[in-house]
Amino acid sequence: MITRKSKREIEMMHDAGKVLAKCHQEIAKMVKPGVTTKEIDQFVEKFLKEHEATPEQKGYNGYEYATCASINDEICHGFPRAEKLENGDIVTIDMVVNLKGGLADSAWTYVVGEADVKTAKLLDVTKTALYKGIDQAVIGNRIGDIGHAIQSYAEEEGFSVVRDFTGHGIGRTIHEDPHIPHYGEKGKGARLKEGMVITIEPMINEGDWKSKMDENGWTARTVDGSRSAQFEHTIVVTKEGPFILTNQDDLSK
Fold first, then answer.
1. Residues in the annotated binding site
2. Which residues bind substrate (predicted)?
C-alpha cells in the first residue's frame, strides 16, 4: 500500500536526512588510498551515535553493518571489510539513518584518489541520471516517467541501467511501496501524489546491466566484471516540486 506522509513525518525524515547528508560530507574527506571500508563503517557508527541517530539497516534481515560498501564491480550491498582501497577504485557507501523515528536513505559513489576520464564519465552520468529522475518526481507524473528519464539518458551515454534493484517508498520502515525502477516507459505505473516519499537511486554499469549474487547472499556484482556506480536521494513529492531530504548542498534548510 502506498502511503502519503504527514507534515510532521516529513519533518522528521528531513532531520534524519540532514544527519545523513553531513555524514556523507565527512566520508568524502576520508576516502583515499589505504583507507578501508571497515574503517568508514566504524566512523559512521560513531558519527550517528554522536548525533543521537542509529543505522537503520544494521540488523535488517540479519545485516551486520551500519553501511553497505560496494567496490568497483559490486553493484550494491557490499560488506565493509579490511581490504585497503587503492588509487582509481570507486566505492559506493549506502546507508539508512534513523533519527528519533524518522528515516532517510542515501548512497554516494566516491573515487579513491584520482579519477581517470573513464571513471569521471561513469560517475558524472550516474549522478546526472539521478537528478533527471528527480526532476520527474512531480504531482501527476507516473513512476514510469522517472525510470524513462534515467534509462534514456544513461543508455544514450553508452551505459546500462541495473534492473534487479530499484528505488522504493520509505517511511516507518526502510522499504515501502511503491517500487521505483530506474528504467521504464513514460506514462506507466502509479501516479505520484503530494506527500509521497521515495528513494531514487540509479545503479549504472559500464557494461551489461545484469547482476549476479555473491555467496554471502547479499552482495550483487556485475556479470561481466564492469564497474557500477550509484547515487541516491530520498525525496518528497510536494506542490512546489520534488524536495530532496538528503541534500548535501544546503544543510541550512
1. 77, 94, 105, 168, 175, 201, 232
2. 77, 175
Per-residue pLDDT of 79-97, as tens digits, reads 999 999 999 999 999 999 9
Instruction: Tell me the sheet residues that pair with 96.
Output: 105
Task: Count other Cβ atoms within 10 Å, centred on residue 124.
Answer: 13
Dig out the grid coordinates for 7 from the structure: 507534515
The C-alpha cell of 80 is what? 565493509
Assess if residue 253 is contained within a domain: no
Block residue for cell numbers 581490504: 83
Question: Can you tell me the distance from the alpha carbon of 30 to that of 32, in angstroms, rounded to the nearest whole number?
Answer: 6
Q: What is the pLDDT of residues 40-80, one digit of tens each?
A: 999 999 999 999 999 999 999 999 999 999 999 999 999 99
Whether 236 maps to a domain, the answer reads: yes
Give residue 31's domain range.
7-244
CA distance 18 to 136: 23
Specify the pTM: 0.96
Query: First CA to last CA across the chain, in angstroms?
Result: 30
In a domain, residue 250? The reply is no
Q: What per-residue confidence (pLDDT) applies to 253?
A: 43
Residue list for the binding site for a divalent metal cation: 94, 105, 168, 201, 232
- Give the annotated binding-site residues for substrate: 77, 175
Question: Which residues have CB under 8 Å from 152's CB, separation 6+?
Answer: none
**Of the candidates 125, 103, 107, 123, which has an alpha carbon nearest to the alpha carbon of residue 115?**
123
